[in-house]
Each structure stands twice: as C-alpha cells, then as structure tokens.
Amino acid sequence: MLLITGATGNVGRPLVQLLINEGVKVRAVSRAAAAIPGVEVVQGDPSRPAGLEAAFDGVTGLFLHPRAVGDAAFDLVAMARRRGVRRIVALAASNVDDDLAAQPSRFRGDRNAEAEAAAVASGLAWTSLRPGAFAINALLAWGAQIRAGDVVRYPYADFTEALVHERDLAAVAARALLTDDLLGRRPVLTGPASATHAELVATIGDVLDRPLRFAVVPPAAATEAMVRNGFPARFGSALMSRYAAAQPAVVTGEVPAILGRPALPFAEWVREHATAFQKESR
Ligand SMILES: NC(=O)c1ccc[n+]([C@@H]2O[C@H](COP(=O)([O-])OP(=O)(O)OC[C@H]3O[C@@H](n4cnc5c(N)ncnc54)[C@H](OP(=O)(O)O)[C@@H]3O)[C@@H](O)[C@H]2O)c1
After folding, report:
1. Which of 108, 170, 216, 218 has the most crowded Cβ, counting Cβ within 10 A?
2. What is the pTM of this model?
3. Residue 45 CA to ligand 1 centre (angstroms)
4. Per-residue pLDDT band at 57 (split at 50, 70, 90)
5. Whether 54 contacts 37, CB under 8 Å
6. Which residues line ligand 1 (CB under 6 A)?
7. Which residues of 44-72 are buried (b: 16+ CB within 10 A; e: fewer)?
8. Among the atoms of ligand 1, which is closest to the Cα of residue 103?
9. What is the pLDDT of residues 193-243, one digit of tens each?
10. Hey, what domains does the chain have and what are their CATH numbers?
C-alpha cells in the first residue's frame, strides 16, 4: 500500500492513476472529501499530521508533496517511520539549493527544500524529485488572457523555460515508488526542449489554431496582475527577479533516461488542455 499526499493535484492525480494502472493499492490523505476512483481516501490535512497515524496502516511507501504537507514534512516522515514505512519519495524543485528568498514558490507557502531534507534525513530509502517549471504554469500565467482574447501581455518575451509535462513527473514518481532505480537520487526533471515565453505562446496559438500575439509589458504590471489573481506580491516580485536574472533554461536527459522514452513535448500538453484555453463566449 502506498500513501499519497497531494493526490488531488497536478502531479498527484496522474501519479495515482499510474499506480492504479499498475495494480498498486493506493491510499490518499486529502483535505478534500471528494472520492478518487480506485483510491482509499482518508479525509485529513497532511500539514497537521496529529491523528493521522492510522492512515499509515500497511503502508510501505509515502509520496511527500510539499504544497500538501506544508511545514509538516519532518513530522509526517517521523510518523511514517514509526509506522513502518520503508520508502519516501519527495517532490522538490530544481531551484531547491538556491537562496530561499530567490525561490518564488516559498512565497506561496511551498516547502520544497524541507520535503527533500525530510526524505533525505529519514533513514529510510528515499528519492527526491527536482522538477523545473511545470507545463501548467502556461495555463496559470496566460490562460485567462487567452480565454479572453488573442493578446498575451507578459514580460520577458525572451526568457526561456523547458516546461515539463506533469504526467512525466508522475511517471518518474511512480518509478521511484515502485522500483529501486532512483534510490538516493535527486534527478532534475525537465521537458524535452527549451523555448522562450514568446515561443511558448506561439505554440499554444498553433495548437489552438488562433493568432495569439505576445505583447511585452513591464514586470510591475505583471506582478500587479498576479496580485489581482490572488498570488502574493512577493511571489510575483521573486518570479520577476528570476526572469531578470535571465538564466537560460537547462534541458536534462533525466526523464528519457528514467522512463526509456522521450519526455512529452509542450505541444502535447497544450492539446490535452485545449479546452482550458478556449475563448469564453460573451
Ligand atoms: N509549478 C512549477 O513550475 C513547479 C516547479 C517545481 C516545483 N514545483 C513544486 O511542486 C509543488 C506543486 O505541485 P502541484 O502542481 O502538483 O500542486 P497542486 O496541484 O497545486 O497542489 C497539490 C496538493 O496540495 C494541496 N493544496 C493545493 N493548494 C493548496 C494550498 N493553497 N494550500 C495548501 N494545500 C494546497 C492539495 O491537497 P489536498 O487534497 O490535501 O487539499 C493538492 O492536491 C509545489 O511544492 C511547487 O513549489 C512547482
């Protein structure tokens, strides 16, 4: 039995599906009461693990999702160890060794460094996955504008990303949970190619068959738009600093090396999510 945190999320959903397809028994701890087909759902908040001991009954492996477990990574891992869990697979991030103030996700409350550190210090078999930017960021950053019209206003047209399909992350996580291939490793997981912001928007336009145009706006305007959409201002400013630093995106060969097939291209991700970009009818 594997216990999955973050099972309702972008990585957790495909991970659970892959595990079920492999015939693995899956339990999920989730704040949401919603059923997940094929999964035993324990309603609970993994960021407040007190009282969650029973969720570990019969569990051999834990997927530690930093957004879901928040500040409780070490407590949850200690509980897992006491309850006989033998393997921890943590989700972290490619920037996890950077100065904490330079990691935008920390201002959203993500505790990627702690999830990795808790796994490594667990004394159990561990793997820490270090993905670069997720493909879903394109939807979060530009989806509302693309649903509303054909112009994407965003800064840093030439900034590059190697967006990784969340299903590839899930497939690597499944490999880490089900085999010994990745024990003690921290693979940096990226998509198959680097592309600029403007090229990514062009790819979305090609897939949707729409004439999308990238219009450069100042970083401050983008941060203000993020704040209007509910993101903390410090998240927006840390993201703009990351863009300003203009580090070219790194493409690693980890996904193909681990999975034995090419990493999924961004265009495929867009095809699968095309309805989420569709124009709103007025
Ligand atoms: N996006 C990127 O480019 C990127 C790159 C590298 C690393 N990461 C890291 O990957 C993680 C995000 O993964 P993801 O996209 O799979 O996450 P997600 O889908 O947004 O959320 C994962 C789970 O966290 C819980 N959750 C969601 N929003 C929450 C909130 N505001 N407060 C508390 N819990 C919340 C939910 O679990 P329940 O069912 O329990 O509610 C959800 O299933 C973060 O730690 C992020 O820093 C992201």
Report:
1. 170
2. 0.97
3. 13
4. very high
5. no
6. 6, 8-12, 30-32, 65-68, 91, 93, 105, 110, 112, 131, 133-134, 137
7. bbbbebeebeebbeebbbbbbbbbbbbeb
8. 47
9. 999 999 999 999 999 999 999 999 999 999 999 999 899 999 999 999 999
10. 2-194+247-277 (3.40.50.720)
